[in-house]
Write a structure and sequence with these properties.
Shape: globular
Low-confidence stretches: 1-79, 520-532, 546-561
Bound molecules: adenosine-5'-triphosphate
Strand order of the largest sheet: 1-8-2-7-6-3-5-4
Strand content: 5-15%
Structural class: alpha/beta
Length: 564
């Protein structure tokens, strides 16, 4: 099933992501996706007929007609249709801007997490937001967001960034990394009196934030917009799948903080709409993903773009829950030599607020097992991860047939469909979201109580990010993973490590598989819990893949996925 999807012409397992980037470097790439969908269309349309609008409508319900839109967009060389989607306007009322969910019963347990800051002269941590010396409007916005006390990554990250230091920060999923970089950046911009942005054909932002997926960068933008509310700082977001003309018009109205996916960002730079000479802050969220084989060339292009200050003349900040050692070494090239490494808990470790359950299955029993799991989750929000886009459609269609209100998100769906799917999932209209790895990282959705790994990923870091869609901000969650010994035994050792380091029960059969498996990671069934590991120190435990022995970094995400 997994490899058959490479019939879309995008390269198979392992080489997939590198190959993909050819389709995803700019907006025209949406069309690349469309081209890819043809092969699947027949398969899904038959399925779709039966759902009568019960939430799921397959991949290609809309083919954008090739008409002139008046947008300034260039068409691809093969004259595929333009991307014309314009998202609905954002709500302007404060209730919508500051909407948030409550932190959970385990929020205070964050205080017990082991923290390690390595590097020279780290500044003192703060313990309250008052100590962060935020200006009045930021303080007000923090409080309206429901933040009472900083999380550990905020306690340490905020003063490090405020002190002007470069940072590589590792903290578990859902523990507030976004505010850890946004708040000190916004504070500095305001304290230094950045010019309120205004209309100009060339925008020169002071901060540049990149993330690997459209939905994630949009979420970061929404957070930036929330914290900057009522200030002179103007954040803007650019990402693929949306009319370029629309985004240019928004950009030209002024931009201090530019959030973007790499392809669209490079497109805007290439069009002369964005200049980088004033960049003071460069943030890589999901930094390990941004520097792996798929995105590394784009990151190099961005730092090598005309006018981009050298690493000595900007502050570079990296955040993730996972940092394989080889990526840490590469990341060092983008950071000043004296960067600080902040580790909250186990580097690459899973969130301990997520109960992890593994069920041994065969390929053919997975669908029945899924129905069993969903019987118990009822209307509680559940994300079901599968390996391929085709499988996502197939499983979503199957669940709809079984009268489970389901939607899906993956790289072959139009952006409008992706946003609709997330909206339906967020609102509870479709409590089940079937997703590929495109939704594995960063997404912060209220009340996701369950994650199901229908297909386990082929990389343990990916597993950590996927299950981290639940159990966020001190809330508890549950992740059920289907383990097919015929397909997943290369993951056995890493799973044992991850489970035991998160104090979870390790099934005896999994330990048996781990002992038998020919994986390359060193094996530590006792799950010794270490704080940090900064690769500059060498050695040590880093979750399950960080020791450098895991599968190649290039295999970290779904092979056929197109992220941007
Ligand atoms: N100090 C705080 N108090 C209360 N809520 C907070 C605090 N900090 C962050 N949050 C909330 O916690 C949730 C998770 O934060 P965020 O998305 O930044 O996590 P993350 O560490 O980036 O996760 P991931 O690794 O999955 O990207 C968000 O809803 C955010 O608004």
């Amino acid at each position: 099933m997994q490899s058959s999807f490479s019939s879309q012409g995008r390269g198979g397992r392992g080489g997939g992501r590198g190959g993909f980037k050819g389709f995803s470097t700019d907006d025209g790439n949406e069309d690349g996706r469309r081209g890819g969908r043809g092969g699947f269309r027949g398969g899904s349309q038959g399925d779709r007929g039966g759902f009568g609008g019960r939430g799921y409508r397959g991949v290609d319900e809309e083919v954008i007609p090739k008409v002139s839109t008046g947008d300034n967009e260039t068409e691809g060389e093969d004259a595929r249709p333009r991307v014309t989607y314009i998202p609905p306007p954002l709500a302007e009322d404060e209730d919508a801007i500051f909407a948030h969910y409550a932190s959970g019963i385990n929020f205070n347990k964050y205080d017990d997490i082991l923290i390690d800051v390595s590097g020279t002269n780290p500044p003192q941590a703060i313990y309250t937001f008052e100590e962060a010396s935020l200006c009045e409007s930021l303080k007000r916005n923090v409080s309206k967001s429901g933040y009472v006390k900083p999380t550990p990554v905020q306690k340490h990250g905020i003063p490090i960034i405020a002190a002007g230091r470069d940072l590589m920060a590792c903290a578990q999923t859902g523990s507030g990394k976004t505010a850890a970089f946004l708040l000190p950046i916004l504070q500095k911009l305001m304290a230094d009196g950045v010019a309120a942005s205004s209309f100009s054909e060339l925008q020169e932002p002071e901060a540049l934030i990149v993330a690997p997926t459209r939905e994630l960068i949009n979420q970061i933008y929404m957070e930036a917009r929330k914290f900057a509310h009522g200030t002179c700082v103007r954040p803007v977001v650019v990402y693929g799948g949306i009319s370029t003309g629309h985004q240019i018009r928004d950009l030209l109205r002024g931009c201090n903080v530019l959030c973007g996916t790499p392809g669209r960002l490079l497109d805007m730079i290439g069009r002369g709409k964005v200049g980088l000479t004033k960049i003071r802050y460069f943030v890589l969220d999901e930094a390990d993903r941004m520097l792996d084989m798929g995105f590394e060339p784009d990151m190099r292009k961005i730092v090598g773009s005309p006018g981009m200050p050298s690493k000595e003349d900007r502050q570079t900040l990296m955040f993730s829950a996972t940092y394989p050692a080889d990526i840490q070494r590469l990341a060092g090239e983008f950071l000043k030599k004296d960067y600080l490494f902040l580790a909250v808990g186990v580097v690459g470790g899973a969130c301990s607020d997520v109960e992890q359950v593994l069920i041994q299955v065969t390929k053919f029993s997975k669908r029945d097992q899924l129905l069993d799991v969903l019987k118990n989750t009822k209307d509680e929000r559940t994300m079901v991860f599968v390996e391929t886009k085709r499988q996502a459609d197939f499983i979503a269609a199957f669940l709809c047939q079984e009268n489970v209100a389901t939607t899906s998100i993956h790289g072959d769906r139009e952006q409008r469909e992706r946003e609709q799917a997330l909206g339906d999932f967020r609102s509870g209209k479709c409590p089940v979201l079937v997703a590929t790895s495109v939704a594995a990282r960063g997404l912060d959705i209220q009340d996701v109580q369950h994650v199901v790994n229908f297909d386990l990923p082929n990389n343990i870091d990916e597993y950590v990010h996927r299950i981290g869609r639940t159990g966020r901000c001190g809330n508890t969650g549950r992740a059920v993973s289907f383990y097919d010994p015929a397909a997943d035994d290369q993951l056995a050792r890493s799973l044992v490590k991850i489970l035991s380091s998160a104090q979870q029960e390790v099934p005896a059969w999994l330990e048996g598989s781990a002992l038998d498996a020919h994986g390359t990671t060193s094996f530590n069934p006792q799950g010794k819990v270490f704080a940090s590991t900064d690769s500059r120190r060498g050695g040590g435990f880093q979750g399950a893949s960080g020791g450098g022995g895991g599968p190649p970094v290039a295999a970290a995400a779904a092979d056929d996925e197109d992220w941007e």
